[in-house]
Design brief:
Layout: H1 9-16, H2 22-32, E1 41-47, H3 53-59, E2 62-69, H4 72-82, E3 88-92, E4 105-111, H5 119-129, E5 130-147, H6 151-164, E6 184-198, H7 200-207, H8 211-218, H9 224-239, E7 244-257
Parallel strand pairs: 1-2, 1-4, 2-3, 4-5
Antiparallel strand pairs: 5-7, 6-7
């Protein structure tokens, strides 16, 4: 998929309203890395920052953070949203082309972008920008076909949603130690589930910025209004006018620069 399909203000503002599950990922990081509650990294980098939710999460454990993204519109929205906090900075760049900072980064996060990068070039770039003993955290999470106590949702997702909006192809290989260049160690890999509560309208807003749907919209096969109408109608009996708990699955990989 062409990453330029994400380079629009419609997607950028939509990303800014996504569930802030990144905060739960940071809590998972604190557990997985045995960090004390008040531990903070000195200087953090968030590559593929999107509209800044992952950068905002990294800021919870960093004195200062830099966010980068390939899309101009994403970085523009980040600057609009975080302009009042001097601990944030943002600039446009590919994940593989991070500038060498004056003070090397002690932690780097890459949320939901690693499937689109050149892995070898990315890691060599990380060698240049990451401090010795620095940590790279590669993570992602996504909506599943599971809703708490609802087989009807699972059926809708499998039989109706994926039939209309199939998952676009992308790399989904799980890295191993053998995939890393010399000087880096895969310390840990974890998988976990997270729950998030949506009402129908907010869930449809969320689904409209999923890559499955966005590919169809950007290609002109369906308009945002048509996609919204279909989802509202088909999901209404499942949501029953209530908030529902949706289940997301996530993973985190922890890579240390030796």
């Amino acid at each position: 998929m062409n990453n330029k399909s994400f380079d629009s203000k419609r997607i950028a503002y939509g990303y800014a309203k996504r569930p802030w599950l990144h905060k739960s990922v940071i809590k998972q990081l604190q557990i997985d890395c045995n960090l004390v509650a008040d531990f903070t990294f000195k200087n953090g980098l968030d590559v593929g920052c999107g509209a800044g939710l992952s950068t905002k999460a990294l800021r919870l454990i960093c004195d200062k953070v830099t966010g980068t993204d390939i899309a101009d519109s994403m970085v523009e929205v980040c600057k609009e949203l975080y302009t009042d906090d001097k601990a944030y900075s943002f600039y446009v760049a590919k994940a593989e082309e991070t500038r060498i900072p004056d003070e090397k980064y002690t932690i780097v996060t890459a949320a939901g972008c690693i499937n689109w990068v050149d892995e070898k070039v990315f890691m060599e770039n990380m060698r240049e920008v990451l401090a010795d003993n620095g940590l790279i955290v590669i993570y992602d999470f996504g909506i599943t076909n599971r809703m708490v106590e609802s087989d009807a949702y699972t059926k809708w997702y499998n039989d109706e949603y994926l039939a209309r909006f199939p998952k676009p192809p992308r790399k989904e290989n799980k890295w191993t130690q053998e995939d890393l260049p010399q000087g880096f160690t895969m310390e840990k890999q974890t998988e976990y589930d997270m729950e998030y509560s949506f009402d129908l309208e907010k869930f449809v807003d969320f689904m409209l910025i999923q890559s499955n749907v966005n590919v169809k919209i950007e290609s002109g096969e369906i308009s945002p209004e048509e996609a919204r109408s279909w989802m509202m109608e088909s999901l209404s009996p499942i949501f029953e006018g209530k908030e529902k708990q949706l289940i997301f699955s996530g993973y985190s990989w922890y890579i240390r620069k030796n």
